[in-house]
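Suppose you are handed only two things: the residues of a chain and a line of SMILES describing zinc ion. What would the bound structure be? This form records exactly that question and the answer produced for it, so the two can be stored side by side and reused later without any lookup.

QUESTION INPUTS
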Amino acid sequence: MDNVERTVMPGDEIAAAEEYVCGPGTYELEGKIFASVAGRLRLDLREKVAEVKPFNPPAQLKSGDIVIGTVSAIRSSMAEVEISEIEGTERGITGDVDASLHVSKMSSRYVEDVRDVYRLGDYVRARVVQVSPSVQIVTDADDFGVIKALCSQCRSAMVLKGRDVYCENCERAERRKIARGYSTVE
Ligand SMILES: [Zn+2]
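ANSWER OUTPUT
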């Protein structure tokens, strides 16, 4: 016998609970199994498991991914970045989204002080180089670095001015490791 596969919507009744075990993407109510997500139903006839694979499952970060994130902490030798998106996908991210960016991997130039390249709240584009046991990212190439900087005094978005970023509100410049294409990325 072949496994049953078809498209289901949330709330669709898919099997009897006495015949199948609830797998991912399903729930049981009053002896029946229902789909909890829109996706592809799979009734495994051998294992007796009902499962719905969502159409847009969240992605797991992997080495080599280009990611966008926000600087969430600055430490003496590293920045922490909360990853919000994997470039080129609409999918959400599952698992660990907190990445570490070591000072030696921030720029192709020597960085003396983390604050010379990143500040809290900056949006950065980076490349994932490790996902386990912790997520590590790097920005030591032209395409990577700050894509939108926030003024460290008034938190306004800063504009590119020469090799620095400039706050028109406070009329002052700050330094950053700026990514190619600064602020053209939404
Ligand atoms: Zn400002």
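WHAT STANDS OUT: The chain has a mean pLDDT of 92. The chain is about 0% helix and 45% strand.
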